[in-house]
Design goal:
The complex is a heterodimer. Chain A is α/β, with parallel strands linked by helices. In chain A, α6 packs parallel to α7. Chain A is globular and about 55 Å long. The chains are: A alpha/beta, B alpha/beta. At the A-B interface, α2, β7 and α3 of A face α7 and α8 of B.
Chain lengths: 265, 431
């Protein structure tokens, strides 16, 4: 099948349980190469669950439905295989790893992906050249490289490091899980610049966010509202503005009698 | 009372016509004490987690008459160190494997070839008595060790090149003993790398005591690498005695031997003397390693800082006992000890016990110990970036141990990391 006719990411009737509780209750979503989709919704709607299931985190049990990626069954792949196939999750809470140097980690990750894909590994000179290019595009300081992964980073630095990793690893499908939360306006712009610089016809983004604010800078092609484990509304970028204006209660009203997290701001 | 091991070893401890009377007396007294009190048993607090039952019933040969002729591959102990190297095979000095290279202010020789006059100059260290069954192996060493390196640094002499002391265990059913004596004159400094290796299938008992005495203002940087053969039993005691304002740093890497015990005894007897120590043990299979730290603050304004890591995989067992004693009158002492451990398998076990005993006022003391497992979140984070699970685990374990090598000179640190990595599970390519 050709990429022009089949979506890059195709989620069908996805049901997911976490610790015995059903969180996603039949999510369907198709994302084509070149598109940016925003997933919005109140707290507890299942937004992060969706991102984690796509990345392959343990503890998420798919009870029904499927996730296809580039024509393959994504759920059959291990997390590192998904990464090497081009899936990237920017974590909501990036993990601190004391003792692991950021540069070392990134080179190990990049070369592991390249080995998987049968590509030649990068030596440290080639790798550092790429790193410097990305750092300058993202206006990040060299200092970031010499520190342990996320150790002692501020919330904003951690999120910027996620975007830096994304820029370096050049995924085909990037999922940003509330990357905007806790960011000041400068950091938010930097995150948006990082994403916008990478937008092209071969890449897709799924931007998970609670607020419309980020979407002023990363203008999505589609906006979906996830509430109580289902996508209850889809539209273009203007949907995000309506949500901002009316709050999630507005959606709840339109989809009664579904009990969804009303009143969140 | 003494058991098969001691009986078979002590019957060889006969009269020594060549030794000075004081040394022969010291050796005999140690042998007598051993015969009387035997090996420590399960009721002995200091040996609570390390059983000597099987060892105590073994009957290895005492010493190795063939040590001088045993073939040893020098790559076994190759390290990029450009100082003098002294090699001992089963406790016997091998000049053919050693390199001397005279350095002004450094006197290097061996216990086995020392004259009566020279022995006399080491008398204070050699006559040290050890109390109780818990010190059985130090006593055994006193009774039976007749060879080992002797290193003396003249006052104010600062030696940059490290001295490499290599102890090799080779061959089965042998018990051997070696004693290393190091003396640093006032305001002198020295780096020493003590390196234990073994030829494979060396089911044998090695027993090494290192005694270092630091005069006023001296500095010793000691690195100990225990990479003995995986079926060896190795008993070690490292003693450091620090005079006023002396500084000792100690880095310990323990990865070898089937059964090993390391007693690190530090006496901060001089005012404002300091001890900084970092170490790590990484065990697998059915390895058992027991580390005992005994740090005594006996003078004012002394400081000790200890950071230790432990990793146990498969069915291995690690023991860490970190005792710090601040004596009466040792006001202004500053002591802290941290020991973190990682269990990689449900069959592995680590027992850690920090012990603080304080008899002085105005003391700063802190200690902490933890035992945990690899962080699942961190593992997923690394995998989500493309690292296979084995590589991710390896990276996290290496990172966990990294604190143990802080402060080691760069070239040597790379070597230590390499030795450690080779002993970790699935040492796959990660870069």
């Amino acid at each position: 099948m050709s990429a022009t006719t089949s979506p890059m990411l195709k989620i069908d009737g996805l049901h997911v349980r976490v610790a015995g509780k059903e969180i996603l209750k039949g999510v369907s979503l198709a994302v084509n190469a070149g598109e940016v989709h925003a997933i919005m919704g109140p707290n507890g709607a299942g937004k992060s669950t969706l991102g984690n299931v796509i990345a392959g985190r343990d503890g998420y049990e798919v009870t029904q439905g499927s996730i296809g990626y580039m024509g393959r069954d994504l759920l059959a792949l291990e997390p590192e295989e998904r990464a090497a196939e081009g899936v990237f999750l920017a974590f909501q809470y990036p993990v601190e790893i004391p003792g692991v140097n950021n540069t070392y980690f990134l080179r190990a990750a990049m070369n592991a992906q390249r080995r998987y894909r049968g590509e030649a590994e990068l030596d440290s000179m080639q790798f550092l050249k790429r790193v410097r290019e990305k750092l300058s595009v993202l206006h990040l300081k060299d200092e970031l490289l010499h520190r342990a992964v996320n150790e002692g980073f501020s919330g904003g630095e951690k999120k910027r490091n996620e975007i830096f990793q994304m820029a370096l690893l050049e995924p085909k499908l990037a999922i940003l899980d509330e990357t905007d939360s806790g960011l000041d306006i400068d950091a938010l712009k930097m995150v948006a610049d990082g994403v916008n610089a990478m937008r092209d016809a071969s890449r897709a983004f799924v931007v998970i966010t609670h607020y419309q604010r980020l979407l002023d800078y990363i203008v999505p092609d589609f906006v979906h509202v996830l509430a109580d484990g289902r996508i209850v509304e889809s539209g273009d970028a203007s949907l995000a503005h309506k949500l901002e204006e009316h709050g999630y209660a507005w959606i709840a009203g339109r989809h009664a009698p579904d009990r969804i997290g009303a009143g969140a701001a | 009372m003494a058991g098969a091991l001691l009986e078979s070893l002590l019957e060889r401890a006969g009269p020594e016509p060549d030794a000075p009377a004081w040394l022969a007396d010291t050796r005999r007294a140690a042998a007598d004490a051993l015969a009387r009190e035997g090996l420590p048993g399960a009721r002995d607090e200091a040996w609570k987690y390390t059983s000597l039952r099987a060892l105590g019933e073994s009957r290895p040969a005492s010493g190795d008459a063939a040590a001088a002729g045993r073939a040893v591959d020098p790559s076994l102990f190759a390290l990029p160190l450009d100082g003098p190297r002294l090699v001992f095979v089963n406790g016997v000095h091998r000049s053919d494997l050693s390199t001397s290279g005279a350095i002004a202010g450094v006197s290097v020789s061996s216990l086995g070839s020392a004259s009566a006059t020279e022995l006399e100059s080491w008398r204070a260290l050699l006559v040290r008595e050890y109390d109780g069954a818990a010190s059985a192996f130090a006593r055994l060493n006193t009774a039976l060790a007749v060879d080992g390196p002797l290193i003396r640094i003249a006052a104010s002499c600062r030696i940059d090149v490290p001295v490499h002391l290599v102890f090799i265990g080779a061959g089965r059913d042998i018990a051997w003993h070696a004693r290393a004596l190091i003396e640093l004159g006032e305001r002198s400094s020295l780096r020493v790398v003590v390196h234990h290796v073994g030829v494979d299938a060396a089911a044998q008992l090695g027993n090494v005591v290192v005694q270092a005495s630091l005069r006023t203002g001296a500095r010793l940087d000691l690195v100990e690498i225990q990479d003995a053969a995986n079926d060896a039993t190795l008993m070690r005691r490292s003693e450091l005695m620090l005079a006023d304002e002396a500084l000792a740093t100690s880095h310990v890497l323990e990865v070898g031997a089937r059964l090993s015990r390391h007693d690190l005894a530090v006496d901060l007897c001089g005012r404002a003397s300091r001890f900084v120590s970092r170490g790590v043990f990484a065990l697998r299979g059915r390895q058992h390693a027991d580390t005992h730290l005994d740090i005594r603050h006996d003078a004012r304004d002394t400081a000790s800082h200890v950071v230790w890591r432990g990793v146990a995989d498969e069915r291995s067992r690690g023991v860490f006992h970190g005792a710090i004693t601040v004596a009466q009158g040792a006001d202004g002492a500053d002591a802290n000890l941290s020991n973190k451990n990682l269990l990689l398998s449900p069959g592995a076990e680590i027992d850690t016990q920090p012990v603080l005993e304080i008899h002085a006022d105005e003391v700063k003391a802190a200690h902490g110990a933890t035992v945990g497992q690899l962080d699942g979140e961190a593992l997923f984070y690394l995998r989500s970036r493309g690292l296979p699970p084995e590589a991710a685990r390896h990276l996290l374990i290496v990172a966990f141990c990294a604190a143990a090598f802080a402060g080691v000179a760069e070239d040597l640190r790379v070597q230590l990391e390499g030795i450690l990595a080779a002993h970790l599970p699935l040492a796959g390519e990660t870069s």
